[in-house]
Design a protein that fits this description.
By secondary structure, the protein is α+β, with helices and mostly antiparallel strands. It folds into two domains: about 35 residues, no CATH class; about 30 residues, no CATH class. The chain is about 15% helix and about 35% strand. It is built from two helices and five strands, in the order ββαββαβ. The protein has a three-stranded antiparallel beta sheet. A hairpin with a 5-residue loop joins strand 1 and strand 2. The longest helix has 6 residues.
């Protein structure tokens, strides 16, 4: 599987261009995706609202498990 980086807005959860991520590093996150699923590198978990795609806190995920999702990146 190909490996690449994607950029997302931390406010909306939407994908943004690399230039946007460079211009606004405080409000974007770069995620590394792809590669071997058996890779032993450290993965981190992020929580998102299933309806909006926005990042949410872990407590929100605990309070609303039906409308949030946890992803490993």
């Amino acid at each position: 599987m190909a490996e690449y980086d994607i950029n997302r807005s931390t406010r909306s959860g939407r994908f943004v261009k690399e230039t946007t991520a460079e211009r606004s590093p405080d409000t974007t996150v770069t995620e590394h995706v792809g590669g071997d699923s058996d890779d032993a590198r450290d993965e981190r978990e992020v929580n998102r609202s299933a309806s909006t795609g926005r990042f949410v806190r872990e407590t929100t995920t605990e309070l609303h498990p039906a409308t949030t999702e946890t992803q490993r990146i």
